[in-house]
Design brief:
Length: 195
């Protein structure tokens, strides 16, 4: 007597469960339709245009992020280093090179869940184009580490995996179709004292 309702309830539970899990995993994807990868850096240049796909719209809506207009800027994220290994907050990395042309840029670290990493008021949690120390050829090296470093230092906390976010503001890059030819800074692991 209870067998048919039980089987129907089980079938509905499985169907809804699989549907919800697949939807959430699609929305958590950071690389997908419309994404470009330049080394370890990933961006969605069409995320703020009318040509964006529904998955990119849903991804941004779920994250609750305000998007830059096409001429305003472009945001790159990196969850891996230049060799393809996941970024670990127990390790030290050097971000070396130059950024694409931009009037201003910012760099900060987030947790694996895209929440800005809180390091404490006395530690450098972000850097930008105006505060970074440069070499004579305009290149720079930024040390990303949980331990104090000389020169340019971006402090992290030991929270496991993390991401780096590089935002280029007022840049011709955002409206450029030549994004693939851009040079982005490299992310090089220099040591893991906790490993």
């Amino acid at each position: 007597m209870f067998r048919i309702p039980l089987l129907v309830a089980l079938a509905l539970t499985v169907a809804f469960g699989i549907g919800i899990v697949s939807s959430v995993s699609a929305l958590k994807a950071t690389v997908g339709f419309g994404a470009i990868a330049l080394g370890p850096w990933v961006a969605f240049p069409e995320a703020q245009t009318e040509n964006t796909d529904p998955y990119a719209k849903a991804h941004r809506a779920r994250a609750g992020k305000l998007l830059y207009g096409g001429a305003e800027g472009l945001q790159f994220t990196a969850a891996i280093d230049s060799t393809g290994e996941k970024l670990s907050s127990g390790c030290t990395y050097d971000i070396a090179g130059v950024t694409p042309p931009a009037r201003f840029w910012t760099l900060y670290a987030t947790t694996a869940n895209d929440q800005p990493m809180k390091t404490g008021p006395e530690l450098p949690a972000a850097t930008n184009a105006w505060t970074v120390l440069r070499k004579p050829d305009s290149s720079f090296v930024i040390h990303v580490s949980p331990v104090a470093q000389p020169d340019n230092w971006l402090a992290t906390r030991r929270v496991g995996a993390f991401k780096l976010v590089l935002t280029l503001l007022d840049t011709p890059t955002a409206g450029s179709s030549g994004l693939i030819d851009l040079t982005m800074p490299k992310i090089v692991k220099t040591g893991c004292p906790d490993a």
